[in-house]
Structure formats: structure tokens, C-alpha cells
Amino acid sequence: MNHDRAKPARVFAGVQLDEHAVSNIKAKFLPLLGRDIMGVADELEQKDRQDFDDAVLSAFGLDIPREHIYGSLRGLVEIRLTAND
User: Fold this and answer.
1) Quick one: CA dihedral 6, 57, 23, 28, positive or negative?
2) Continuous H helices in 1-65
3) The pTM is what?
4) Measured between alpha carbons, how far is 16 from 80 in angstroms, rounded to an integer?
5) Is 25 in contact with 59 (CB distance < 8 Å)?
């Protein structure tokens, strides 16, 4: 990675989530436990996965659109798959 293009990372060390946020994250994670894990592209299309990710983003107060994160993740997976060929 080019260090000139790198963006500062957010650090969440010591962040305390309120009880509602923790409960919401746990509730949104439960449906994921009841099914098989899928490949990245398929996983990101699942409503239960999207709901969980939205709960985490909301709990940490991140105003990054989920689709922006998903697009970046898809791009990184594509790079990794291409590098393995």
C-alpha cells in the first residue's frame, strides 16, 4: 500500500458501548449463528448480515455508509483472488 494514500485508522480501544447498543449487536448477531457462513460476496447480500453490520456501525457512531465499506471489501477480495491466480 502506498503510504501517501493511506488514511488514518480509527482506534476504538477503551470504547464503552451502552447496554442498548450491546444488546442490539447481540440480537442482530444471533441469526448469523443459525446459518452457514457464505463467501464474502454472498454474505454481504444477506439481510441478517446487513442488519448486524448496521448495528455495529450505529453502536460505534460511524457515519460510513455500509455500501461504501462493502464496496471496499469486495475490491480487496478481488485483489486477493487475482493475486492468488
Assistant:
1) negative
2) 19-33, 40-44, 47-59
3) 0.80
4) 34
5) yes
Do 28 and 55 touch, CB atoms closer than 8 A? yes
C-alpha of 44 from chain center: 9
Q: How far apart (Å, rounded) are the C-alpha atoms in residues 49 and 25?
A: 11
For the chain, 85 residues long, give each residue's pLDDT as a single digit of tens. Answer: 455 566 666 656 667 899 999 999 999 999 999 999 999 999 999 999 999 999 999 999 999 999 999 999 999 999 998 987 7
Question: What is the DSSP secondary structure assignment for residue 6, as one 8-state letter?
Answer: P
- Kindly tell me the number of DSSP H helices and DSSP E strands found in the chain: 4, 0
